[in-house]
Amino acid sequence: MLRTEIYRMLKSRSFRISLLVGCSIAIWELIVVAIPYAYGPEWAFMRSGADGAYPPSLFNSWLGGTPFSLPSLVYFFVAPLLACIPYASSLHTDCAGGFAIQLLVRSDARTYLRSKIVSSVVGAIVAVEIPLLLSLLLTATVLPALPPEATAGTFFVSPTAMLGDLFYAHTWMYLMSYFLIEICTICAIAWAGTLLGLVLPNALMTTVAPFMICMILSVALTPFNASSYTPAELLNPSPTGAANVIVALMAYGSILILCLVITCIITKHIEWLQQ
Amino acid sequence: MRLVIRSYTKQFRHNTVLDDITASFESGTIYGLQGKNGSGKTMLMRALSGLIRPTSGTVEVDGVPLGKDFDMLPSVGVLLESPTFLDSYTGLRNLETIASIRQVAHRKQLEDTLRRVGLDPLDKRPYRKYSLGMKQRLGIACAIMESPDVVMLDEPFNALDASGISLTRTIIREEKERGALVILACHDAQELANLADEILVIEQGRLVSVIDDVRKGVENGDGL
Amino acid sequence: MSTPTTLKLFIRDLQVGKYHMIALACATCILSVFGVLSYLYATNLALQLMPSGFTSHVNHDAWSNLWLFGCNPASNQPDLPFSMPTSWIGMHLLFVALPISYVTTDYRRSGIQILTRTSRKTSWYLAKLLWTILAIMLALMAALIPLLSQPSIAEILFEPTRLPAYASAAILSTSLSILVTQGSWQLGAIPTLLAYTIYLGVCAYLPSDNPLFIGSLTMLCRYRAYIGEMPIACIETSAALALLVISTLVCVLASKRDVIPGPLGECR
Fold first, then answer.
1. Which of A12, A193, B83, B99 is deepest in the core (most CB within 10 A)?
2. Which residues of A touch C194 (CB under 8 A)?
């Protein structure tokens, strides 16, 4: 059943829309930021290293390295929506339409839910991470991967940010670690979004609800100086605020555990999956 | 195969939808469920297939209760209420998607099943463009495509034209001859009398009577 | 038997869609309350840290979570950092998402029954348009209540030298939302919402001297550059009325099509 669900997710129009929009933003970043950095005359003095200026590098020109560029801001803002568009509403659609019955009688609630959630999470991860990887690869074709320099003033990861010292010591390790943190965050968003489909009235609200919750969190956490723990900040490899990686992993880990508990409860109440 | 439902009661909040139902079902027999709208026929089918869990009572398959080694009947095909499939897929693709779960039926078998119910396996139209009768036929095809041990059909004659009704009767008899346990819910008493070997009459969630000599009754011209 | 007119359908929508209206009003009110609480927290913090008064930077932070304040456009000045105005975008998305949800649900439940009983599809569309306008206006009034509780905010909103800023921003927000809702009926809800979110982000980022980015006119942030020297209220009101006319025309034209486009395009 898992293979069936993943195949269905990959072939769906919404997955393609999400991936297309994400990749378009990555290309947009390449055109308006990376290529001007690489070839624009105004940066020629930096490329040559004149006046002691540090030349532009891959790590401060890709989608995850320029937190104040428009494509980057837009991308990490809509990332929760891009994560839920592919497959988060499919559980709602199946249950509301009665298609879930055909799948349930051929397996069981646990297998069905597991397949649905895994494919929803996989779709979310692919939709959000592929554009980032694409941006990294495309930017690497025009800019060298010069190691970041804290004193250069052109790298936006503060040494006090989450894993900031790792960024300057082992940049690729930092990026890999950050991708893992992003996967954890996306997993929480997609899983919660899928389960919300059982209580929300239609597929549109199911898709949009996690994104709206992320925005509400962003507003609600700002007064407590905790906006760096919002999904938009956690998904951005160049966060603008300071955050503790243990606190972030615990927070999103708790959400994942809560989702797991709710999923286990649903498997005991199979009627909830039917019309 | 022997399917037994023992003292089965199901309550939703304070509403009792099935009340102390006990019955047994054998392979190679057609059982009819007769009752008014809302009497509990569909609920009984859901209970037998494992789609709902009992408030009390059990469903046993060859002596093994559901929910112990398995949650659902091991081999069942269902048509419950209005059939629903994926809108953007063709009929064949919908069946392939569902058949890929158990991987019991291969593509040729699915194509043959579609022809058997009067649909064209090469039809490229997506499901959302199907007429109501075509959707019903696809639902029947989905229920029988894997040659399951138990076939449950809830109002299979809905929206079918005369040829469709005749085809469905033939399919039901063929399934019985194959050795399947067929459970059929229908509000048309005459249709049930023609097809079923045994009729269970359900009223307000209770099993009020079992007519197990349907054939004799029909031959004698008894009204049902 | 008389066929339902637009007014009758509208009255029906008021009865059937009242829960969606209430949900929209509550959600916008909650978002507005969060913004006011954030404003109070920031000003109290500033009082504790700087008892002699506020710096403009702290004052800006205090205002930034109020939904209609918006944000500074992106600039190179280190004391005016850009951050996505979540409250402002959230409010605009609420104005669009909940009406789309109601129209979708109503269409699925009883759209065919109602449409077959109206002599013109236009009546159904116009009734939905009127319902959406009323729902958004009510939500904006609900969002105003927490703002009025703060005298300093109320002074900004109702300066005597210009039309009430809130009213003009409200009209423009409503009109923009109507247009986007209409677009979702034709193009599909998810792609429209995604495109609208990106559009709002771009509006927030850029200075509002480009008339294409009309959304930024609903922001009251004083650092924004406005078009020419025309009084901003006139620009906003004119733009709002133009958008309203355009969206009504789109509504009427869409109703003339042979194929009924469902809110999620399910009739294509």
1. A193
2. 17, 21, 78, 81-82, 85
What is the extent of the structural domain holding A127?
2-273
For the ranges A22-36, A221-235, B192-206, C207-221, which has the lowest average pLDDT? C207-221
Question: What are the distances in angstroms from CA C258 to CA A36, C53, C89, C254, C267?
Answer: 49, 64, 35, 9, 11
C218-242 burial, b for 16+ CB within 10 Å, e for fewer?
Answer: bbbbeebeeeeeeebbebbbebbee
Note whether B83 contacts A103, CB cutoff 8 Å. Answer: no
CA pseudo-torsion sign C86, C87, C90, C95? negative
Tens of pLDDT, residue by residue over A172-203, are 999 998 899 899 899 999 999 999 998 888 88
Does C225 have pLDDT greater than 60?
A: no
- Which stretch, A29-33, A150-154, A268-272, has highest mean pLDDT? A29-33
- Structure-block tokens of residue B118: 């009067």
**Pairs across A and C, CB distance < 8 A:** 88
Which residue among C35, C97, C201 sits closest to A74, beta carbon to beta carbon?
Answer: C201
Residue A2 burial (CB < 10 Å; 0-12/13-18/19+)? middle
Q: In DSSP terms, which residues pair with B21 in a beta bridge?
A: B8
Select from A73, A208, A219 the Cβ nearest to the Cβ of C193: A208
Q: For A128-132, A177-181, A207-211, C209-213, which range has the lowest pLDDT when averaged over its residues?
A: C209-213
Dist CA C83 CA C87 (whole Å): 11
CA distances (Å), origin A90, targets A203, A253, A257: 8, 24, 22
How does pLDDT run across C165-199, given as a tens digit for each residue?
777 778 788 888 888 887 887 778 888 889 999 99
Q: How many CB atoms lie within 10 A of CB A15?
A: 19
**Rg (Cα) of chain A, in Å, rounded?**
20
Going by C-beta distance under 8 Å and a sequence separation of 6 or more, which residues neighbour residue C222? Answer: none
Contacts of C185 (CB under 8 A, 6+ apart): C103, C254, C261, C262, C263
Per-residue pLDDT tens over the stretch C105-128: 887 777 767 776 666 677 888 888
Q: What is the pLDDT of residue A15?
A: 94
Full-model pTM:
0.83
Nearest CA distance, A19 vs chain C (angstrom): 12
The tally of domains found in chain A comes to: 1
- Among candidates B71, B80, B81 on the partner chain, residue whose Cβ is nearest the Cβ of A108: B71
The per-residue DSSP string of B137-178 comes to: HHHHHHHHTT--SEEEEESTTTT--HHHHHHHHHHHHHHHHH
Q: Where are the alpha helices (DSSP H) in chain B?
A: 41-49, 91-102, 107-116, 132-144, 162-178, 189-195, 214-219
Q: Which residue has the tokens 């649900």?
A: C105
ipTM of the complex: 0.84
Cβ contact, residue pair B101, A274, below 8 Å: no
Testing the interface with B: which of A15, A106, A265 to mutate, by most B Cβ within 10 A? A106
Under 8 Å between Cβ of C240 and A108: no
Residue whose token pair is 């195949």:
A7
Choose, out of A208, A211, A221, the residue to mutate when testing the contact with C (most C CBs < 10 Å).
Answer: A208
User: A275 pLDDT exceeds 80?
Assistant: no
Neighbours of chain A (3+ CB pairs under 8 A): B, C
pLDDT surpasses 80 at A223: no
